[in-house]
Amino acid sequence: MSAGAPGRSSRAAFPRIALIGLGLIASSMAHALRAKGLCDEITGYARSAETRAIALELFCDRVTDSAAEAVAGADLVVLAVPVGVMGEIAAEIAPHLKPGAVVTDVGSVKEAVIEAVAPHIPAGVHFIPGHPLAGTEYSGPRSGFATLFENRWWLLTPLEGQAPGPLARLRALLEAIGANVDEMEPKRHDLVLAVVSHTPHLIAFTMVGVADHLSRVTQEEVIKYSASGFRDFTRIAASDPTMWRDVFLTNKEAVLDILGRFTEELFMLQRQIRMGEGEQLHAYFSRTREIRRGIIEAGQDTSAPDFGRAARHKGDEAGSADAGLTESGPVESDAPDRAGA
Q1: Can you list the alpha helix ranges (DSSP code H) found in the chain?
Q2: Rounded to two decimals, what is the model's pTM?
Q3: What is the structure's pLDDT at 317?
Q4: Regarding the domain with residue range 9-184, which homologous superfamily does it belong to in the CATH classification?
Q5: How far is the CA of 120 from the CAs of 59, 107, 206, 259, in angstroms?
């Protein structure tokens, strides 16, 4: 099974690509690379033998029993494992990296990943940290699909002194699979993601936890009468627990900062509700409504009724492979293999 399309092999920017971790992001990358004919061979490694077997069946040309074996001779290595094991994997593969190879990652946190991975990268190998802002609440090697990254942002946080050539090649590859690519300082990335992803996920986990522990409302009632707001909380709260544990522990400073600001806003709203300050509440909700409009105008979600669920459900009935995977838009996720690699 060859990843490259006929006539493309000699022109591939990264002829051999190694995916370390074979969950949602890695499998989606593989499907997209194969669909576009952007490489000659895709090699994969996951800690689980079952995951490796599925990957070999669905999207890898070759799977290996170790990460070190997978990266040997690879032109591009993608670390798609939980943030907490990035350093361990980097130490294992370092002696086996091809001179001139590019190593990138898909972690939701960048400063901690750089601190863990960069010291292991040998001279002559280019480490370019990255983060696709795309995902679903599903994980594992069967969850990927080729269009996951289309019109979604993929942030790169290149290190100081990064050579322009490898960066340009990686950027071109990501754009070729449909992503909008931007560059950002690692510290800035972690703060921005604490606002747009990490803290919202924490709030979703909390709201679902509150419903679970509220004795005055039964679990049957929560499930039976869940409207779209709570339903979307549960969708987000279904994201991979290993990944999110690592995200919060490695980006704690930014998350705690934004969580503190959120708490202040919540106390303000609590007071306005208690005091019956309707005008202030209306003004606040009007301002926040504009943010939703901006997201739609930027093409990052749909303006269709019910977040486009009806159209996706019709796609399900028609047998669409991608329908229903994202329900009300992407859950930003690494979605790594639950075994850790």
Answers
A1: 24-36, 49-58, 67-71, 86-93, 111-117, 164-176, 186-193, 199-213, 219-224, 228-237, 241-250, 252-275, 278-297, 309-317
A2: 0.77
A3: 38
A4: NAD(P)-binding Rossmann-like Domain (3.40.50.720)
A5: 29, 17, 37, 33
Residue with tokens 């992503």: 179
Q: For the structural domain made of 188-317, what CATH number should be given? A: 1.10.3660.10
Q: Identify the helix (H) or strand (E) that includes residue 45.
A: strand 41-45
Could you give the CA distance from residue 118 to residue 86 in angstroms, rounded to a whole number?
10
Residue 111 has pLDDT above 50, yes or no: yes
The reply to whether 9-184 and 188-317 are identical in fold is: no
User: For residue 112, what are its two tokens?
Assistant: 């901690």
Domain boundaries, the chain: 9-184, 188-317
The answer to whether 117 and 87 have CB atoms below 8 angstroms apart is yes
Query: Which whole-number Å values give the CA distances from 123 to 4, 75, 166, in the listed order?
Result: 29, 15, 14
